[in-house]
Amino acid sequence: MTFEMIKKNYDRKLWNKQMVKTAVIKEVITKEQYFEITGEDYLA
């Protein structure tokens, strides 16, 4: 899974914010990328 794939899935509403947050926890994307995808700051 890449940042681009996660963003595309989120934009298509296939992923929700919790799923994107899990990608941060698993270190697939960064907290900054979480913000870029969701438009919200990452809060643990």
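Next protein, fold it too.
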Amino acid sequence: MNNWLGLIIGNSRLHWCYFQDEKIQQTWNTSQAESLAELPHILDKTLYSYLKAQIPLYIASVVPSVTKIYLSLPQTTIINPNILPLQDIYSTMGVDRILALWGAGCTYGFPCLVIDSGTALTFTGADEDKKLIGGAILPGVKLQLQTLFFNTAALPEVEIIREIIPRWAKNTPCAIQSGVIYTLIATIGDFSQDWLTKYPESNIILTGGDALLLFQYLEVILPDISNKIVLNSHLIFLGIQKYIEDL
């Protein structure tokens, strides 16, 4: 197949990619639509023109209510992760985690550990036999910040800044930033170190919307760990590509 669209329907955003001649040509992040009629207003003109041209669309979704909007498009194919040759995948495992793991293994080799930093921060690992070893899920950067803001009376709403913030803060916003980011970095370091103890030759791939942010902090805070991590923000799309190739 020369060209196709991939769509990841996440908990907070839609993530699109356009593949042509086996390479990612362009990506977009958009808000969720309530109906097909909204698409011309929320999609980039180029992306919308691809949909109108009925370029094949492959969808991986963790939000069924949003998925149904695109089922009426004649070019839509819903990805079935059960056909992938990964072992011990459990029934409730998210298709996004499965595709990211498959994309990582096919691109970098098995064993591998995927750290996906989206709405949730997830860890997903497989051994050299493409068997799921397991993983973990915890709130991601923005979700932790939002939880503190919406569930406390006095704490302000803040965002993680791109510059490296000090661990020991002298005001409330910085204290929140420090608590969230340094805890997440420590968690990534702990899980990565444990994984490498079990699989010392394994690749570790960091992906997701906050991947670059977390990697920048890792380089400063845990350089020995960051040197063993590969940054690839398009890992799930690579998983879709491998899925299509195997059809």
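About the second fold: The chain has nine helices and ten strands.
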